[in-house]
Design brief:
With about 300 residues, the chain is of the alpha+beta class. It has two domains: about 110 residues, Probable inorganic polyphosphate/atp-NAD kinase, domain 1 (Rossmann fold, 3-Layer(aba) Sandwich); about 160 residues, Tumour Suppressor Smad4, CATH 2.60.200. Helices cover about 30% and strands about 35% of the residues. Strands 6-5-16-13-8-9 form a six-stranded antiparallel β-sheet, with helices on one face. It has a six-stranded antiparallel β-sheet with strand order 12-11-10-7-14-15. β3, α3 and β4 form a beta-alpha-beta unit. The C terminus is likely disordered. The structure holds magnesium ion. The site of magnesium ion has 9 residues, from β11.
């Protein structure tokens, strides 16, 4: 039996969303569910961490976040170590975690699940390097160049298409390199144009996963090296999208799983973590199994079956 939520704190990123009037939607569903709610607005990076910590101190029954994956990552950093469940109210240009957990991408629908008591608790893993936490993943090379190329202004204007245009530019820009990996004590040296160290498997804009074996609750990070960007890779991506399963092709993609991962590359490539560009490399990355409780729809654990 899930604990009844009586009071909730909502962190709102005012930059997120598609211009909908969010407060009336939230207010109506909280009223219907008889939930007392307070909200705080983020103004700069780091605010959501502090608000989440304050909500934990106040002893709320749940913490909700309206924003994209960046705001979510900050809120989770402030929640780690507490038992307070997280409610995701999708509002970003990319909602990878909401999609991964089978949550609706529409705010009204997400609020309805909460007010109708149609959510259950699921524990998810969180990644860590130094004192930083991440929920989606870290990548080197192509994807990091895509993130670098999609700035806030373009994202506001074009949404997910900002990434598409940036991807076309990055295809020309990204150079191959050699990745030096150490995964749970095993060393690997592999050439590629992109390396993902990921907690989630979906592509962020639909229920399509690039590998159905990637699980946000299995206590493992997935390390995927894409070796070449050529027509065969394009074909592989299309087959994956149609069949919803990636056929093995070691010449194109290598895949490991682990709990403790070190990575560097020569020459140096761009690095991003949960959509933010990082300058630091080499990285030593670990997973914290079951670090956070999240409320997900009762009917399905994961949209990808
Ligand atoms: Mg996993």
């Amino acid at each position: 039996m899930e604990k009844k939520i009586r009071n909730i704190h909502i962190i709102i990123n005012p930059v997120a969303g598609i211009g909908e009037s969010i407060l009336p939607i939230i207010n109506a569903s909280m009223k219907e569910a008889d939930i007392k709610w307070e909200a705080s607005i983020t103004h700069r990076g780091g605010d959501a961490v502090q608000y989440a910590k304050a909500a934990v101190k106040d002893g709320v029954d749940a913490l909700a976040v309206y924003g994209g994956d960046g705001t979510l990552r900050e809120a989770i950093s402030g929640l780690i170590g507490s038992e307070i469940p997280l409610v995701i109210l999708p509002g970003g240009s990319a909602n990878v975690m909401a999609t991964e957990l089978g949550l609706p991408t529409d705010l009204k629908e997400a609020c309805k699940l909460l007010s109708h008591g149609s959510l259950k608790t699921k524990t998810i893993d969180v990644g860590q390097f130094d004192k930083h936490y991440f929920i989606i993943g870290i990548s080197l090379g192509f994807e990091a160049d895509v993130v670098k190329g999609a700035d806030r202004k373009t994202k506001n204007k074009l949404g997910i298409f900002a990434y598409l245009f940036s991807a076309i530019a990055a295809l020309k820009k990204t150079k191959k390199c050699v990745y030096h990996l150490k995964i749970d004590g095993q060393e690997h040296e592999v050439q590629g144009f992109m390396c993902l160290i990921t907690n989630t498997g979906n592509l962020g804009f639909s229920n399509i996963s690039f590998d159905k074996h990637i699980d946000v609750s299995d206590g493992l990070l997935d390390v995927v090296v894409v070796r070449k960007a050529n027509l065969s890779l394009f074909k592989l991506v299309i087959i994956t999208l149609i069949k919803r399963e990636r056929p093995d092709n070691l010449e194109l993609v290598e895949h490991w799983q682990g709990k403790d991962i070190s990575i560097s590359s020569s020459p140096k490539q761009s690095v991003q973590c949960d959509g933010e560009v990082l300058e630091k490399i080499p990285l030593h990355i670990k997973i914290i199994p079951g670090a956070i409780k999240v409320l997900v729809p009762k009917r399905m654990d994961k949209a990808i079956e």
